Amino acid sequence: MSAAAGLALAVVSACLINGGLFVQHAAVSAAPTLLLRHPWSSLRSLLASPAWIAGYLAGIVGWAIYVTALALASLSLVQAASAGGIGVIALLTWRSGKGRLTNTERIATVLAIAGLLLLSASLGPRAPTVNIASGSVILWVCAAALAAAIAAGPLSTRLRPGAGLGVAAGCLYAAGDIATKGALTPGGSLWLIPILLTCHLGGFVTINLGFQRGSAMTTAGPATLLLSAIPISAGLILFHDGLPNGAAGLVRVVAFAAVVTGAVLLATPAAAGQAEGQGAFETGVQENPWPAHVSSSDS
Question: What is the rounded CA–CA span in Å between residue 127 and residue 130?
């Protein structure tokens, strides 16, 4: 029963978080250029937007529900449900009139939803909780943080505008989620709390910088993919989530594959829409070098 409740809360969390990201993207795209060297003026410009505040608060509520889901269900199950949240962004983009869904995006959205349905069909008794050494959790967090630094730095020039920052945000948020699960697990340490808060702060900064450089799908797509794929791997390898026996285990594997494949399809350049030379989800924002150029000064 707890696994079913955890899955249901994870779906609600995914809708709130990804819906909030969509609203934040629209607000940040219209805001003055955000600059790392002027953090306070950048923060003031965000707080001046009621839409951004609403999207951010939706994300906070979604994260609180996500933490509750983690206390009830395994990390891999919760994150697989969260991966389907990218479909929320695709549907909101379509409903907002900012572009029509391509065939790839339709397929990806169907896969994400089908994966969620299969997850619910694969529920069974929850695996016994095992003690996890905090050092092992920190190693996973450091590896994800290193990947984020590479994505936001040297790798960013090889990706679509904003995608490098989206990848970095996904890695940092994933690191925060792994630390969150580690803190909730028997044997976990309270020292993981400042680590998870730092990771989420880094994800917050990089995703908002990415929003000014690329479309919602280009930035939030890779972020959602990695935010799901990395913790799913950690759940199976680090936290020993395991799989149900028999047919339920096979259904769970197919569900994992479906939600991750859907997220991958939505995050790829082709999925961003380039038919007839015009992307369905393009914002017209050009990539800026890291760090961004100075356009204003702090008052």
Answer: 9
Q: Is 125 left (phi over 0), alpha (psi -120 to 50) or beta?
A: beta
How many other C-beta atoms are found inside a 10 Å radius of the C-beta of residue 83? 31
Main-chain dihedrals φ then ψ at residue 38, nearest 5 degrees: -130, 70
User: What is the distance between the alpha carbons of residues 265 and 273, in angstroms, rounded to a whole number?
Assistant: 11
Using one digit for the tens of pLDDT, what is the confidence trace for 58-74?
Answer: 999 998 998 898 888 88
Tell me the residue range of the domain where 17 lies.
Answer: 2-273
Q: How many domains does the chain have?
A: 1
281 has pLDDT over 70: no
Domain for residue 284, yes or no? no
For helices 192-211 and 216-237, angle between their N-to-C axes, nearest 10 degrees: 160
User: Residue 88: which of 25, 24, 16, 29 has the closest Cα?
Assistant: 16
Count of beta carbons in the 10 Å neighbourhood of residue 118:
20
Report d(CA 151, CA 165) in Å as an integer: 7
Nearest in space to 290 (alpha carbons), one of 142, 170, 151, 174: 151
Q: What is the pTM of this model?
A: 0.72
- In a domain, residue 266? The reply is yes
pLDDT in tens, 204-255: 999 999 988 887 777 887 787 778 778 877 887 888 777 777 787 888 788 8
| Rounded Cα gap, residues 87 and 263, in angstroms | 8
Count Cβ atoms within 10 A of the Cβ of residue 150 and give its class: 0-12 exposed, 13-18 middle, 19 or more buried.
middle
Whether residue 294 is contained in a domain is answered as no
Residue 293 within a domain: no
Distances (CA, A) of 80 to 179, 191, 209: 17, 27, 26
Contact criterion met (CB below 8 Å) for 77 and 119? yes
